[in-house]
Amino acid sequence: DIPDSYPLSSKRKKHQIIHGYSRYMFPMVTGFMNYGQQTVRAARYIGQSFMITLSHANRLPVTIQYPYEKSITSERFRGRIHFEFDKCIACEVCVRVCPIDLPVVDWRLETDIRKKRLLNYSIDFGICIFCGNCVEYCPTNCLSMTEEYELSTYDRHELNYNQIALGRLP
């Protein structure tokens, strides 16, 4: 004799067998349907993200390869200071407007013509904050900002530029 608990018992009615079968098959069929829907959705998301990537492909690069390519500086960029020795009248306005009293101006008073004569002018770029006040307030425009930004060195004493080094254009 076959027990009643056995799934294919002859004592069970036909609709009970179908109902029992669908009870086990329905989650499996819906699982396959959900799997298919999720696969289609994932493929759509991958396609959308790939389209975003392709839309950025024809844009210009933002980064540059530094030692080989130089960055383009703006008009208002404040780089190394250029100094013209012949224009300077040793008025020391640059020293007075500098927030850290950085430019070192050595001069001598010429008694016969009663004018200052510039002997030495130096700026230490290891201390300079590149504020641009000295350039802005110079009455003779002997100071100007250049676009030179490569001031790195292994010895900080090399950053102390005298009038000869300041006079070189980049």
Automatic annotation (TrEMBL):
The keyword Nucleotide-binding does not apply. Residues 79-108, 119-148 form the 4Fe-4S ferredoxin-type domain. The keyword Transmembrane helix does not apply. One of its GO terms (cellular component) is membrane. One of its GO terms (molecular function) is quinone binding. Keywords: 4Fe-4S, Chloroplast, Iron, Iron-sulfur, Membrane, Metal-binding, NAD, NADP, Plastid, Plastoquinone, Quinone, Repeat, Thylakoid, Translocase. It holds the Pfam family Fer4. Its cofactor is [4Fe-4S] cluster. Binds 2 [4Fe-4S] clusters per subunit. PANTHER family: NAD(P)H-QUINONE OXIDOREDUCTASE SUBUNIT I, CHLOROPLASTIC. Belongs to the complex I 23 kDa subunit family. NCBIfam families: ndhI, NuoI, PRK05888.1-3. This is 4Fe-4S ferredoxin-type domain-containing protein. It comes from Nymphaea colorata (pocket water lily). The lineage of its organism: Eukaryota, Viridiplantae, Streptophyta, Embryophyta, Tracheophyta.
